[in-house]
């Protein structure tokens, strides 16, 4: 389930979103979901960016209702002579100005904004990972089931990494940002940023699952703990990339204005700690010898 809301309503929405999570429902702050809930308020009615989200969620059969509610709420937004400040957008209004004016090299700025927003929305879960915390499952797993889950997770992590490599491939980047001298596609740029965040979230999910299981066997418990730490380097690499990219994107407009050459590199290297891999394999082998 995805949620769409105005920034002013963030605390309320976050509190509401916690409740379905306790019943096995995953809540996303992007569009990676089968269902979407729109939190329509006066603040929501004032946001031009909300129309982009409603379009992206592909609301079917309810557009008239949504627009009717928005019309009832009315819009208190007043048009101003605001101009884009050259920084990575931190608000919906700043994003709207950027997409309206589209200054040179504008393509990198909405991408940076979506990356920053995605990381910020997952901040609590990132802290949980560092604390090695995961909500306990009510479901019981015997040792054989745990062994199969941990063994199959080797392939699951490969699939996550491969998905990221597709998102970061040269041809996908080119379709979004455009060839040299060509304008980019804002919808694809924003979608690409959201997919980056979704891979980060999948890595957090990967670590959370083995930590959430109640495991009786010592060797399997050790293997699960090590497996959860396995994604530490990829998570660090993605966070560092976002921090560095947003910091650099904030300077693009000023550097172009001073005729400074710009060379934007988007490179992320995801590796797995071989010592953790070895420790995990040995723990699983000890279980097999003793079962």
Give the CA-CA distance, first to last residue: 41 Å
Q: Please list the strands of the largest sheet in the order they lie side by side.
A: 1-2
Q: How many strands, what sense, and barrel or not for the largest sheet?
A: 2 strands, parallel
As a whole number of angstroms, the C-alpha radius of gyration is 22 Å
* Chain-averaged pLDDT: 82
Tell me, what's the shape? Answer: globular
Unreliable sequence segments? 58-65, 76-81
What proportion strand? under 5%
| Count of DSSP H/I helices | 14
- Helix amount, in percent? 55-70%
Please provide the count of β strands: 2
Which secondary-structure class do the elements indicate?
Answer: mainly alpha
Topology pattern, helix = H, strand = E: EHEHHHHHHHHHHHHH
Q: How do the helices and strands line up, and which of them pair or pack?
A:
Elements: E1 2-4, H1 10-21, E2 36-38, H2 42-46, H3 49-56, H4 63-73, H5 92-101, H6 108-121, H7 123-131, H8 143-167, H9 170-177, H10 186-212, H11 218-229, H12 232-249, H13 252-257, H14 274-290
Helix pairs in contact: 6-10, 6-12, 8-10, 8-11, 9-10, 10-11, 11-14
In a nutshell, what does this entry contain?
With 291 residues, this protein is mostly helical. The chain is built from 14 helices and two strands, in the order E-H-E-H-H-H-H-H-H-H-H-H-H-H-H-H.
Give a structural overview.
This protein is an all-alpha fold and 291 residues long. It has helices spanning 10-21, 42-46, 49-56, 63-73, 92-101, 108-121, 123-131, 143-167, 170-177, 186-212, 218-229, 232-249, 252-257, 274-290; strands at residues 2-4, 36-38. Strands 1-2 form a two-stranded parallel sheet. Strand 1, helix 1 (10-21) and strand 2 form a beta-alpha-beta unit. The model is unreliable at 58-65 and 76-81 (pLDDT under 50).
